[in-house]
Specification:
Order of helices and strands: HEEEHEHEHHEHEEH
Number of domains: 1
Distance between the termini: 112 Å
Number of strands: 8
Strand content: 5-15%
CATH topology: Rossmann fold
Radius of gyration: 36 Å
CATH superfamily: Glucose-6-phosphate isomerase like protein, domain 1
C-alpha cells in the first residue's frame, strides 16, 4: 500500500490551514500550531489518517465495490477527473445533483435517458424529427453527459464516498450518512470531521495538496483492483480443474451405472432362462408320468 513521507506532504503544502478566525473547534485535535494568524495542520496525524483511509479504500476496491469521488470545487475538478478515470471509478465533478444517493432510481432513469437518445441517433429516429426537436434532444444529451456522464457505470449505490471539501459538499455528506454509506474526506481547519468516517486533515484548497492526496488514494484503489484480478486469475484454473474433475467423476459414475444396469439385465435374463428350463423340465416329467399311466 502506498505510503508518503513527511517531506512530501510538506512540499505540497498539505499543512496549511485557514485563518484562525475561520477555524472549527472540532478540528482542534488535528491542529499543530498557529503561525501568522493561520492554523498549521499536524502532518503526523495526517499521515496516520491517510494510511487508514488508503487501507479502507484498498479493501473496498479489492472486494469489487465502487467508490464515488466527489469534488466540484474549481481546484479539484480536473485533478479528480483525470486521476479517477484511470482507475475506472465513478466521480462527480460538476454540480452535485440533489438526491443523487437518496433518490438513486431517478438518477438512474436520467442516465438511461442518455442511452435511449444514443439509440435514437443510431436507429434512424433522428431523421424523423424536425430540426428544432433534434436540437432540443442534442442539448438534453449534452447536459446529461456533463452532469451524469461520469457515473454511467454506477448501477447501484456506491460502497463509499470520497469528498474534497466537506463544507462545499455538505449535501453529499448528509445523503451518505442518511443511507449509512461511509465517507472518506479531506478536512481542512474550517471543517467538521465529526460526521466523517475516515477524515484526512489536509489543505483542501491548494491544487498540489489535493493532487497528492488523490494520487495516494488512487494508488491504493489500483492495488486493491490488481489484487482482485490476481485472485480471479488464480481461481480460474482451479475452477477449470474442478469442472474437469466433476466431468471425470460424472463419466465414472455414468460408466458404473451402465455396468450395473448391464449386470442386472444379465441376471434377469439368466433368471428368466433358468425359470424356462425348470418349466420345460417339469413339463417333460409330467408327460412321462402320463405316458406311464396310459401303458
Amino acid at each position: 500500500m502506498p505510503r508518503t513521507d513527511f517531506k512530501t506532504l510538506l512540499d505540497a503544502g498539505v499543512h496549511f490551514g485557514h485563518l484562525k478566525r475561520k477555524w472549527n473547534p472540532a478540528m482542534a485535535p488535528y491542529i499543530f500550531m498557529e503561525r501568522n494568524g493561520i492554523h498549521i495542520i499536524d502532518l503526523e496525524k495526517t499521515i496516520i489518517k491517510l494510511d487508514e483511509a488508503a487501507s479502507a479504500m484498498k479493501h473496498i476496491a479489492r472486494s469489487g465495490k465502487k467508490i464515488l469521488f466527489v469534488a466540484t470545487k474549481k481546484q479539484a475538478k480536473e485533478i479528480v477527473a483525470e486521476k479517477v478515470r484511470n482507475i475506472n471509478m465513478p466521480f462527480v465533478t460538476e454540480r452535485w445533483p440533489g438526491g443523487m444517493l437518496t433518490n438513486f432510481p431517478t438518477i438512474r432513469k436520467a442516465v438511461k435517458k442518455m442511452g435511449s437518445i444514443d439509440k435514437m441517433a443510431t436507429d434512424g429516429t433522428f431523421t424523423n424529427l424536425s430540426k428544432r426537436e433534434r436540437l432540443q434532444v442534442t442539448r438534453q444529451r449534452a447536459k446529461l453527459e456533463k452532469n451524469l456522464g461520469s457515473i454511467v457505470d454506477l448501477t447501484r449505490l456506491p460502497s463509499a464516498l470520497f469528498i474534497v471539501d466537506v463544507c462545499k459538499e455538505h449535501i453529499a455528506v448528509k445523503e451518505a450518512k442518511r443511507l449509512g454509506i461511509p465517507v472518506i474526506a479531506m478536512v481542512d481547519t474550517n471543517s467538521d470531521p465529526s460526521d466523517i468516517d475516515f477524515p484526512i486533515p489536509a489543505n483542501d484548497d491548494a491544487s498540489k495538496s489535493i493532487s497528492l492526496i488523490i494520487e495516494i488514494l488512487c494508488q491504493a484503489v489500483e492495488e486493491g483492483l490488481n489484487e482482485r484480478k490476481n485472485e480471479k486469475d488464480k481461481e480460474a484454473p482451479r475452477e477449470r480443474r474442478g469442472a474437469a474433475r466433476d466431468e471425470e467423476e460424472d463419466d465414472i459414475t455414468s460408466s458404473y451405472r451402465k455396468m450395473k444396469e448391464a449386470q442386472e439385465e444379465e441376471s434377469h435374463e439368466e433368471a428368466d432362462s433358468s425359470e424356462a428350463e425348470e418349466e420345460d423340465e417339469s413339463g417333460t416329467e409330467a408327460g412321462d408320468v402320463e405316458e406311464e399311466e396310459e401303458e
